[in-house]
Amino acid sequence: MKLNWPKYMYEDTEIKAQFLTKENQAVLQEYEQNVNAIQLDLQENILLVKGPIYIKEEFIDQTIILLNNSATSIVDVQLETEITLRTGERLEGKFLLQAEKYGEILPDEGMLEFCRFPNNSKLAKMTLKSTEYEVRSELTYTNLTTENEEE
Q1: Prediction pTM value
Q2: Residue of 71, 14, 8, 84 whose CA lies nearest to 42
Q3: What's the pLDDT at 41?
Q4: Is the pLDDT of residue 151 over 50?
Q5: What is the Cα gyration radius of the chain?
């Protein structure tokens, strides 16, 4: 399975220069290798894989990977998520990855993105591994072949 950054990261010159560095490309390749090494038995058309959480002074970024296991491209993914950190702090968010900004997730490919939450509780700066928090999520999306919304 091949992983990509969202479309907007390649189109915005400021983001591209700041974010699409050799180091970050190596991180993307490492995620791709890890996903492929697991050899997931995917039963769902689209799957959310959680990665590390980065807690900064003003925000909290949850790393997510959306994997498309269907035979067609998927767009307009809506993610409702609730995260419980090991501190007991709960974060809730709703994110819409619109096709115009994020592009399509092609069959047998995935997209790596960050869901950003405000750091309202002023949690200390740290990085949490995916095993150090729990997440509940609900995904909806549009399948490009049928244009029907799936769950």
Answers
A1: 0.82
A2: 71
A3: 65
A4: no
A5: 15
CA 114/CA 67 separation, integer angstroms: 14
- Does residue 27 contact residue 52 with C-beta atoms inside 8 Å? no
Cα(59)–Cα(50) distance, integer angstroms = 18
Q: Read off the tokens for 65.
A: 């990977």
Question: Which residues, other chains included, contact 128 with Cβ-Cβ below 8 Å and sequence gap of 6+?
Answer: 52, 53, 55, 85, 86
How many other C-beta atoms lie within 10 A of the C-beta of residue 79? 19
What are the distances in angstroms from CA 94 to CA 13, 27, 77, 82, 115?
Answer: 27, 25, 11, 9, 9
- Token pair belonging to 107: 């069959």
Segment 83-127, tens digit of pLDDT:
998 878 899 999 999 999 999 999 999 999 999 999 988 888 999
User: What is the structure's pLDDT at 146?
Assistant: 53
CA-based torsion, 84, 88, 89, 90: positive or negative: positive
Chain centre distance of CA 73: 16
Q: Which residue is associated with the tokens 């993914």?
A: 77
> Hey, what amino acid is at 13?
T
- Residue 22 pLDDT > 70, yes or no? yes
Q: Predicted confidence band at 149 (pLDDT cuts at 50, 70, 90)?
A: very low
